[in-house]
């Protein structure tokens, strides 16, 4: 049997369409245009592509897009001064600082300089705390995207065993919080986990967020399980570069459903960023939040 391919690209397009409609309504009824500011420090080629795509999709949704590029040589104080300016700017409802930052900068200090109500990445300690205590937070885009795909596929997630491979602050940990709130039984695995294949075989929902091409093998998957491949790995092959996930493509023969790479979680991340910007804008202005866009 071959798994159902979960079409993240199509789902993300639907989500962006929904965001566009709400943005148009906000403009029409309240004269407000949601704005997203993205800060890019340095020349990381992958980051440049992501930031460009974000700008294009932000504008396509009818929102205002502000891009701020700083050189590698910028000082941490310059980045924080810029963030403070954006915090105070009423036309900016969301602020994203593209990661990774250059090595001489303290990522935590920079993330925590963002006004939590504009923290559309959901990385600020206040939002992390709100999420982990089950309160209304800004939710990190990638885990939110995974949750929306899982809810769409399963309906209720109650009682399902979820195994998350990866414990980063941007994917693994917030993913665990969301799935706990969705009444899954959650296990987080990492590089020190013993007998990872055996643990994965117990998962009804398996989430791979590791950064190792094809690490998750077909015989690690419980027949019929849902597999969400968060990994984005660029590999060089026959002098061309292509994107692969953390899951071996042959896993589709064991899984019940699986997200492809590309075309799975990646497009959902950007769609959720736009949804979060809209949510932040509605909250700032005390307006009703559109249904179905937040966790
Ligand atoms: N689709 C999207 O929108 C996004 C995709 N990504 C992709 O997701 C992947 C993970 O990203 P991110 O969370 O930032 O990565 P990190 O490098 O921050 O975390 C990787 C995690 O994987 C664990 N790990 C590493 N090797 C193994 C192993 N052999 N067995 C088990 N666990 C292991 C690490 O364990 P330990 O903690 O013990 O070191 C760590 O917890 C990357 O490919 C990244 O490009 C990331 C963000 C968004
Ligand atoms: N502050 C911050 N927030 C982030 O959310 C953030 C970040 N920094 N740094 C980098 C990672 C990575 N990330 C991706 C977003 C979209 C795709 C995406 O659209 N992927 C497409 C393919 C794109 C391509 O072809 O390169 C796909 O999977 O189909 C991938 C990865 C967000 N991240």
TrEMBL record:
Reactions catalysed, as given in the entry: (6R)-5,10-methylene-5,6,7,8-tetrahydrofolate + NADP(+) = (6R)-5,10-methenyltetrahydrofolate + NADPH; (6R)-5,10-methenyltetrahydrofolate + H2O = (6R)-10-formyltetrahydrofolate + H(+)
Domain of life per record: Bacteria
Functional pathway: One-carbon metabolism; tetrahydrofolate interconversion
Family matches, as SUPFAM superfamilies: Aminoacid dehydrogenase-like, N-terminal domain, NAD(P)-binding Rossmann-fold domains
Protein residues bound to NADP(+): 166-168, 232
EC number(s) from the headed UniProt entry: 1.5.1.5, 3.5.4.9
Domain Tetrahydrofolate dehydrogenase/cyclohydrolase catalytic: 6-121
Gene3D superfamilies xrefs: Leucine Dehydrogenase, chain A, domain 1, NAD(P)-binding Rossmann-like Domain
Coiled-coil residue spans: none
Pfam families the record matches: THF_DHG_CYH, THF_DHG_CYH_C
Domain called Tetrahydrofolate dehydrogenase/cyclohydrolase NAD(P)-binding: residue spans: 140-283
InterPro entries linked: Aminoacid_DH-like_N_sf, NAD(P)-bd_dom_sf, THF_DH/CycHdrlase, THF_DH/CycHdrlase_cat_dom, THF_DH/CycHdrlase_CS, THF_DH/CycHdrlase_NAD-bd_dom
Alphabetically ordered keywords of this record: Amino-acid biosynthesis, Histidine biosynthesis, Hydrolase, Methionine biosynthesis, Multifunctional enzyme, NADP, One-carbon metabolism, Oxidoreductase, Purine biosynthesis
Subunit text: Homodimer.
Biological function: Catalyzes the oxidation of 5,10-methylenetetrahydrofolate to 5,10-methenyltetrahydrofolate and then the hydrolysis of 5,10-methenyltetrahydrofolate to 10-formyltetrahydrofolate.
Family note: Belongs to the tetrahydrofolate dehydrogenase/cyclohydrolase family.
Official protein name in the record: Bifunctional protein FolD
Lineage: Bacteria, Pseudomonadati, Pseudomonadota, Alphaproteobacteria, Hyphomicrobiales
Recorded name of the encoding gene: folD
């Amino acid at each position: 049997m071959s798994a159902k391919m979960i079409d993240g690209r199509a789902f993300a397009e639907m989500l962006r369409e929904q965001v566009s409609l709400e943005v148009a309504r906000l403009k029409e009824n309240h004269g407000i245009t949601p704005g997203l500011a993205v800060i890019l420090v340095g020349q990381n080629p992958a980051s440049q592509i992501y930031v460009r795509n974000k700008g294009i999709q932000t504008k396509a949704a009818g929102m205002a897009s502000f891009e701020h590029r700083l050189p590698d040589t910028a000082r941490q104080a310059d980045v924080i001064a810029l963030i403070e300016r954006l915090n105070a700017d009423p036309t900016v409802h969301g602020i994203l600082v593209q990661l990774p930052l250059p090595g001489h900068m303290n990522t935590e200090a920079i993330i925590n300089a963002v006004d939590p109500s504009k923290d559309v990445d959901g990385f600020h300690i206040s939002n992390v705390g709100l999420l982990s205590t089950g309160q209304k937070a800004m939710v990190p885009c990638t885990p939110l995207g995974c949750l929306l795909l899982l809810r769409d596929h399963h309906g209720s997630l109650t009682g399902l065993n979820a195994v998350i491979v990866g414990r980063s602050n941007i994917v693994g940990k917030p993913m665990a919080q969301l799935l706990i709130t969705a009444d899954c039984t959650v296990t987080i695995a990492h590089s020190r986990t013993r007998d990872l294949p055996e643990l994965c075989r117990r998962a009804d929902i398996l989430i791979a967020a590791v950064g190792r091409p094809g690490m998750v093998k077909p015989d690690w998957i419980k027949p019929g399980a849902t597999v969400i491949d968060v990994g984005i790995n660029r590999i060089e092959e026959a002098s061309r570069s292509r994107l692969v996930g953390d899951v071996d493509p042959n896993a589709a023969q064991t899984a019940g459903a699986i997200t492809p790479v590309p075309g799975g979680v990646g497009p959902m991340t950007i769609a959720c960023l736009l949804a979060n910007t809209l949510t932040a804008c509605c909250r700032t202005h005390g307006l009703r939040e559109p249904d179905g866009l937040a966790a």
